[in-house]
Write a structure and sequence with these properties.
It contains 5 helices and no strands. It is mainly alpha-helical. Helix 1 packs across helix 2, helix 1 runs parallel beside helix 3 and helix 4 packs antiparallel against helix 5. The N and C termini lie far apart (53 Å).
Length: 103
């Protein structure tokens, strides 16, 4: 095995975007994290997308139990989900998470 994949091998946006969701929930492979961080550091688009994921994830309950968030929090979460749907970002996953929030 050679060194085809090294830490200096830059990620493209196409490679980075699917990793941002996993990164935001801490599920990204540890060996990939530094490369994604490097890309984010030099790419405003992916940095913005990543921060949106992190904000969304931080607002969404990842547990199995439905929760009953305060109205202002629920509104923010649903607004995030709507934004995610409009942008096409993980619409299915966001929808499933949102369905855990009681309306
Ligand atoms: Zn990028």
């Amino acid at each position: 095995m050679g060194d085809l994949m090294t830490d200096s091998d830059p990620l493209t946006c196409e490679e980075a975007e699917p990793l941002l969701a996993a990164y935001s929930v801490g599920a990204l492979d540890a060996s990939t994290v530094p490369r994604l961080r490097e890309h984010i550091g030099g790419c405003a688009n992916c940095r913005a997308t990543g921060s949106q994921f992190e904000t969304t994830v931080s607002l969404l309950p990842l547990g199995a139990e439905p929760v009953d968030p305060p109205d202002h929090l629920r509104g923010r979460v649903l607004a995030r989900v709507q934004t995610a749907r409009r942008r096409g970002w993980l619409a299915g996953a966001m929808g499933r998470m949102a369905s855990r929030i009681r309306r």
